[in-house]
Predict the structure.
Amino acid sequence: MNNDVRKLLAGYVDGELTDEEKKSVERALLENEELRVELAEFKNLKEVTGMAQYADLPDEVWESYWESLYKKLELGFGWIFFSLGAIIILCFGAYTVFSELFADPSAPLWLKIGLPTMAAGVIILLVSFTRQRLFAYKRDRYGKVKR
Amino acid sequence: MCSDTVLVSQIQSGNKKALGQLVERHKQVAYRLALGLVGNKDDAFDISQEAFLRVYKSANTFDNSKPFLPWFYTIISNLSRTWLRKRKSRDYRMVDVDDVSFLLVDESNPEMAMEKRETIASLRSALLQLSFEDREIITLQHFRGMSYEEIARMLNIPRGTVMSRLYYARRRLADLMRNDSNE
């Protein structure tokens, strides 16, 4: 049987065919028992899905929907500002500590070596973590799905 | 009343009230679309909210010459795929989902409801086993009652592709339901 006619069955059940398409399906239905069985199956499926409905949420959830969304929005901005502030303070703190540390001749050598080494380690870890996240994002098969 | 596109252009300039209007207009659609895709009420609710947050954050990437709903649907669909992947369903099926109450019998006829409950349970089970793409097209056509033309616009595919995707999705759904009743 012509596969194109078979695919038209979906449109036939949903009343979505043009007159010409409809006639070609009806002609095929007269000739083909298998197609008639398939049509009956599709009609039954449509009836079954017509009896079902997706579960709704309680009214109070809908009433507070915007409120809870707005809180999330504010929370997001809060985190952005907090993170920016924390980065600025940390950078300033690190600059102050290191400039004073290296300017002080009485500071022990192990401290002058140990502290910058630790800071370098933290920076490498941060860069590595960020790179991994970016790599995972780029490999996301559906991250950039455009329809 | 402002159109969706006008509201998004207001959101682009940081107008939260416009977002509020857009949310009121589409919150239930967003929830139901997500529910059809992930099959879990709580997660569908979270996905719908996250979708609106994305609208706010990514409003500048929206092309004002195009309709809002297909763009919004793409956001919901991508979020749903990510959610399913996080559920460790590698092939994007919902077999691990434990919320069985996402699909209910229409209770408008109580006598019928008793009889049909078993059939709906079978439908629910079959839907859980469908691929993401099949479930998507079934959700849009059967449960959202969208025309082929609307689905084509929403998914940015030709009308003929809508029809053939629906044919194969229904074929698989019917097979799954038949197998379920034979077991």
